[in-house]
Amino acid sequence: MLIKLSIVVGAFYFIYHKIANNSTLKFSDFIDFLSKNDAFSLKTILFLVLLSILNWFFEILKWKTLVTSIKKTSFKNALEQSLGALTASLFTPNRIGEYGAKAIYYAANHRKRIMLNNLLSNMLQMSVTAILGFIGFSFFIVEYDPNINYYKFTRFLVIAIMAFTLLGFGMTKSKFSIKGFALEKIKYFIVAYPKIKLVLGFLLSVIRYAIFSFQFYFLLQLFEVDITYLNAMAIITTMYLLASIVPSIFIFDVIIKGSIAVYLFSFIQVNELTILSIVTLMWLFNFVLPSIFGSYYVLNFNFPKNDE
After folding, report:
1. Residue by residue, what is the 3-state secondary structure of 226-258?
2. What angle do CA 138, 279, 9 make, to 5 degrees?
3. What spatial distance separates the first Cα and last Cα of the chain, rounded to whole Å?
4. N or C, which end of the chain has less CB nearby within 10 Å?
């Protein structure tokens, strides 16, 4: 019980620390901005909460869909595992704590495959972020013509491709691992995985991405940012792509997204305070709020029986 309580207290302390000591946005400025804009009616708040619920509904549904290839799991159990793991991993680098947190919901003989399953789930979401991000980034360059040194960019791209090619060749000749799993084992796991579940997992990742990116656009409209949906998506998808590339402690993810978002939205002269407030609201609705509910599942967690 002491360990469970420590996890919850630790998660809440990090949330408090992030809100109270945000170097990019003071909490008092954030509250003043919301008060002056008077944009939040009960109807608006309920709609934003609904979008957050839908965001996590499809994430939980994706986890249920994928994990049933290992062990039959109800939506209720998938809900408990997803939100409990969110709370437990909130302050771990790159959400690495999520792997162990989800695994301990299962008997010891299932845990390695559960961790691989979680890696696969994250890879599917990341692939959607990468695909839509590159499309959005292409539109962003065409539409806003950022000051990019294309010679240096091309040279960097060529070097990166060569490095990844050599790395890929090296990985096939060595015992390379991702999240502690040998590359060959991950490859075998994915190849042997039911293809219908991979397709469903990818589609659910797309739906989830569409929901939280629309939520960002809705907040832009709420604060009267004059931008079309397509132009907004070009910037938003670029933001998520760049933010996903930068490693971070998950609790500071909001700072990274905020800095990138401020730079990208500066091309359409959006106030810095507006963008930082929107990024903070996205973080509060999609991570802080679910982690509060997740703390209940952490406190009520019981280890599964080994003969399961």
Report:
1. CCCHHHHHHHHHHHHHHHHHCCCEHHHHHHHHH
2. 135
3. 22
4. N
What is the C-alpha separation between 297 and 147, in angstroms, rounded? 48
Q: State how far Cα 221 lies from the chain centre.
A: 23
| Strands in the chain per DSSP E | 177-178, 181-182
For residue 234, tell me if it sits in a domain.
Answer: yes
Q: Which residue segment(s) compose the domain that 122 sits in?
A: 2-133+193-299
Would you list the DSSP string of 67-88? HTTTS---HHHHHHHHHHHHHH
DSSP 284: I
Would you say residue 173 lies in a domain? no
- Whether residue 199 is contained in a domain is answered as yes
- Per-residue model confidence as pLDDT tens digits over 142-160: 888 776 655 555 665 566 5
Q: Which of 51-60, 115-124, 135-144, 220-229 has the highest mean pLDDT?
A: 51-60
| 62 CB-near residues (< 8 Å, 6+ apart) | 121, 124, 200, 201, 204, 205, 208
How far apart are the C-alpha atoms of 101 and 104, rounded to whole Å? Answer: 6
pTM for this one? 0.85
158 falls within a domain: no
